[in-house]
């Protein structure tokens, strides 16, 4: 079973614990894969290794618990709806929807290898279609290699980005008339070998001057790295998200609709834990190589054209910067000579494998996992593999299986940053600086997946050694520096949910209806599973009743929470009225909770607000 979500190992473990109570050992480490997505628009604070807790102000239990409960619930629902069915596969190519963001690294791969492929990104879309025994569709999974980062860092709304939008479109198409997430059909758009692949297809340009960025280090003559940003294909991030999402949706739907090839045969799965700082690889008949303790290079802090670093780091650094190394040494201590040698030519910025306070900074025990369903093999990789790395893993795995479609499922079970080829590693752009177990990381994985593939092919997967179990950090070991949110306040003589800025009386499709409410902090609403902060409601004239046409999960709505001072805040709700909207009367509602203290105890009270009724007209053509 492959579940697509935003989580890492702790959750898999927590999810499994949640399931164990109900289903015994039916769902286990070896037969469940959690494949995450790379969004810049999600919640933070749910990965327990120290590096990831720095930017999220620690481990945020209120985010994690709800995500875990939601995943457990979705698996329970899937389990309860289990019935016999059939699986079909199809694949095709999608153009103009991805771009290699480190072409200079890619070009360092051997020419004869590059010649065997068409271009420096994978264009293929692989779709699995699930039907019941009557042939009615019940779900699908689509893999296409692209970073879901069309939305940039200026966006503060929770968003599934381009792949999330593709999923939304597919489900709306199948679950006609249902609100998002409510219908029976499930459409999943999952991660593949997207490591060096950007969705921003117009490529990088200097924000200030409009010039091209430097090819080798992606920096601008004035302003450096942070001025070099990739855009497109739309004129803003919303348009870009929509276009890329639509492209992936359309191609996937075409493949879904036209597939005739049924997937038949048994299901196998193999799983192991590896100590990634301690793998010996047989390179050729005479030489071996080793992986390293985790470390990040200088170019990690350079960021990418999909989101630059804040300081003066650049990509492609093969020498350290004495200024930053000095600061690092003073605060964290210098990396050991052993680690420095092991990672060469990477200049080490953070020797995370040697940093264990208050908890390890990076994982060293990682999951490798392989699932085969008939003639489809899903390689579950614990990181973001580059285009060529993915191709090499695919090729190596397919040697074990004849006539098998090998799918790269990225960001599975635990997160270990990027995985480049040995040749790409030499260039030390962002992806290479973030290949944390050193230059032979990919070779170590290929060796391991080959072992899993061989075991499945020979039917010996049950005999595979389990490997060292990863640590499990308990709540008392994890820290949170996120302050409790203060009590919510309203402006004088107003109440929560009161309208501060009213909608217009009349709109035409294509316009944006907007209303601002006196609000409480959304964190005070707690678990929002199956709930919404926002509804757009339509009046049924004949019965004088309202029905919900959109929620906060709809592409058409935007819910902005604007934090003021002294506990004051506003919620602005926008409805981007689609061309397909029916003319008639509408209203917008907002639901929230405010926090106050009563008898020294925090109390959370629900409130709601409603806009005036407004009219929507179809466009008038002259
Ligand atoms: C980037 O590389 C160019 C040469 O290709 C060089 O002139 C420039 O100084 C480099 N920028 C930084 C910030 O290192
Ligand atoms: C994000 O995209 C918007 C356009 O939607 C653009 O105005 C802004 O400069 C971008 N910001 C960053 C940090 O790239
Ligand atoms: C992983 O390997 C390293 C290097 O050999 C070793 O120091 C470490 O103890 C190992 N970790 C575990 C959990 O086995
Ligand atoms: C094996 O690999 C090493 C290191 O890359 C190289 O120096 C050596 O020539 C190779 N030997 C053979 C037999 O290919
Ligand atoms: C980065 O900034 C520091 C401090 O301003 C400076 O000393 C250093 O030389 C800069 N490094 C680069 C590569 O520009
Ligand atoms: C690390 O290498 C440097 C330079 O080669 C050397 O001066 C130093 O003594 C080494 N440190 C250790 C602990 O071996
Ligand atoms: C709030 O209402 C009271 C009573 O109606 C009035 O005296 C006061 O001026 C109002 N304050 C503001 C800021 O409007
Ligand atoms: C709604 O119904 C009322 C009477 O119940 C009628 O006067 C009005 O024209 C109707 N409006 C629309 C938009 O159909
Ligand atoms: C909330 O909206 C009102 C009315 O537009 C505005 O005066 C006030 O500054 C806003 N408060 C915040 C926190 O944005």
Short description:
This protein is of the alpha+beta class and 622 residues long.
Structural commentary:
The chain is an alpha+beta fold and 622 residues long. The protein folds into two domains: 2-275 and 362-463, no CATH class; 499-617, Immunoglobulin-like (Sandwich). 23% of the residues lie in helices and 27% in strands. It has 13 helices and 33 strands. The strands form eleven sheets. Strands 25, 27, 28, 31, 32 and 33 form a six-stranded mixed sheet that branches. Strands 7-6-5-3-11 form a five-stranded mixed sheet. A four-stranded mixed sheet has the order 12-19-20-22, with helices on one face. Strand 29 and strand 30 form a beta hairpin. Helix 1 crosses helix 3 and helix 10 (387-398) runs parallel beside helix 13 (441-458). The chain is globular, with a radius of gyration of 25 Å. The model is unreliable at 1-9 (pLDDT under 50). It binds 2-acetamido-2-deoxy-beta-D-glucopyranose (9 copies). Residues 152-154, 229, 236-237 line the site of one 2-acetamido-2-deoxy-beta-D-glucopyranose.
Write the layout of secondary structure elements.
Layout: E1 2-4, H1 9-23, E2 33-35, H2 50-54, H3 61-80, E3 85-93, E4 99-100, H4 103-106, H5 111-115, E5 124-132, E6 137-143, H6 161-174, E7 186-190, E8 197-198, E9 203-206, E10 228-231, H7 237-258, E11 261-263, E12 267-275, E13 280-282, E14 288-290, E15 296-297, E16 303-304, E17 307-308, H8 322-332, H9 337-343, E18 348-350, E19 365-373, E20 376-380, E21 384-385, H10 387-398, E22 405-409, E23 418-419, H11 422-427, H12 430-433, H13 441-458, E24 499-501, E25 506-508, E26 512-518, E27 534-540, E28 545-551, E29 557-563, E30 569-576, E31 584-598, E32 601-610, E33 614-617
Parallel strand pairs: 1-2, 6-7, 20-22, 21-23, 25-33
Antiparallel strand pairs: 3-5, 3-11, 4-8, 5-6, 9-10, 12-19, 13-14, 15-18, 16-17, 19-20, 24-26, 26-30, 27-28, 27-31, 29-30, 31-32, 31-33
Helix pairs in contact: 1-3, 6-7, 10-13
The protein binds 2-acetamido-2-deoxy-beta-D-glucopyranose (9 copies).
């Amino acid at each position: 079973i492959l579940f697509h979500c935003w989580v890492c190992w702790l959750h898999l473990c927590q999810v499994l614990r949640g399931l164990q109570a109900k289903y015994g050992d039916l769902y286990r480490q070896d037969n469940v894969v959690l494949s995450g997505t790379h969004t810049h628009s999600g919640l933070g604070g749910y990965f327990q290794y120290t590096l990831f807790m720095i930017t999220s102000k620690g481990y945020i239990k209120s985010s994690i618990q709800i995500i875990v409960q939601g995943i457990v619930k979705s698996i329970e629902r899937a389990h309860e709806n289990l019935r016999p069915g059939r699986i079909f596969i199809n694949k095709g190519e999608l153009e103009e929807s991805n771009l290699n963001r480190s072409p200079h690294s890619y070009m360092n791969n051997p020419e004869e290898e590059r010649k065997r492929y068409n271009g420096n990104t994978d264009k293929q879309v692989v779709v699995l279609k699930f039907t019941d025994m009557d042939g009615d569709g019940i779900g699908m999974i689509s893999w296409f290699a692209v970073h879901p980062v069309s939305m940039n860092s200026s966006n503060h709304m929770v968003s599934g980005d381009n792949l999330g939008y593709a999923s939304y479109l597919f489900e709306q198409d199948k679950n006609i008339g249902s609100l998002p997430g409510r219908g029976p059909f499930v459409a999943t758009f999952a991660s593949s070998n997207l490591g060096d692949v950007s969705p921003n297809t117009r490529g990088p340009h200097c924000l200030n001057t409009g010039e091209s960025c430097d090819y080798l280090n992606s920096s601008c003559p004035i302003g450096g790295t942070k001025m070099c940003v990739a855009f497109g294909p739309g004129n803003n991030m919303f348009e870009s998200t929509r276009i890329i999402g639509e492209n992936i949706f359309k191609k996937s739907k075409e493949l879904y609709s036209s597939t005739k090839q049924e997937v038949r045969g048994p299901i196998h799965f193999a799983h192991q834990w590896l100590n990634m700082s301690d793998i010996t690889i047989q390179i050729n008949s005479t030489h071996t190589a080793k992986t390293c303790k985790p470390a990040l290079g200088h170019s990690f802090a350079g960021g990418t054209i999909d989101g630059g670093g804040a300081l003066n780091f650049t990509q492609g650094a093969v020498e350290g910067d004495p200024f930053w190394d000095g600061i690092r040494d003073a605060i964290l201590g210098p990396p050991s000579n052993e680690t420095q040698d092991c990672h060469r030519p990477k200049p080490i910025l953070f020797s995370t494998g040697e940093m264990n306070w208050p908890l390890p900074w990076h994982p060293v025990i990682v999951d490798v996992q392989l699932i085969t369903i008939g003639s489809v093999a899903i390689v579950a990789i614990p990181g973001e593999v580059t285009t060529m790395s993915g191709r090499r893993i695919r090729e190596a795995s397919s040697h074990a299986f004849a006539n098998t479609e090998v799918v790269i499922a990225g960001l599975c079970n635990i997160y270990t940053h990027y995985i480049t080829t040995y040749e790409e590693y030499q260039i030390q752009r962002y992806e290479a600086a973030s290949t944390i177990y050193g230059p032979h990381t990919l070779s170590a994985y290929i060796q391991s997946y080959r072992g899993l593939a061989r075991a499945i092919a020979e039917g010996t997967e049950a005999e595979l050694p389990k490997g060292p179990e990863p640590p499990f950090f308990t709540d008392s070991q994890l820290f949170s520096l996120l302050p409790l949110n203060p009590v919510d306040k309203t402006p004088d003589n107003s109440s929560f949910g009161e309208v501060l800025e009213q909608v217009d009386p009349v709109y035409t499709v294509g316009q944006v209806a907007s209303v601002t409410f006196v609000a409480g902090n959304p964190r005070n609403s707690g678990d929002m599973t199956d709930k919404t902060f926002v509804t757009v409601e339509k009046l049924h004239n004949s019965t004088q009743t309202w029905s919900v046409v959109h929620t906060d999960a709809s592409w058409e709505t935007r819910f902005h929470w604007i934090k003021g001072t002294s506990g004051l805040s506003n919620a602005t709700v926008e409805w981007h009225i689609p061309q397909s909207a029916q003319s008639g009367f509408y209203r917008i509602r907002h639901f929230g909770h405010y926090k106050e203290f009563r008898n020294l105890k925090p109390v959370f009270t629900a409130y709601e607000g409603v806009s005036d009724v407004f009219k929507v007209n179809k466009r008038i053509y002259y």
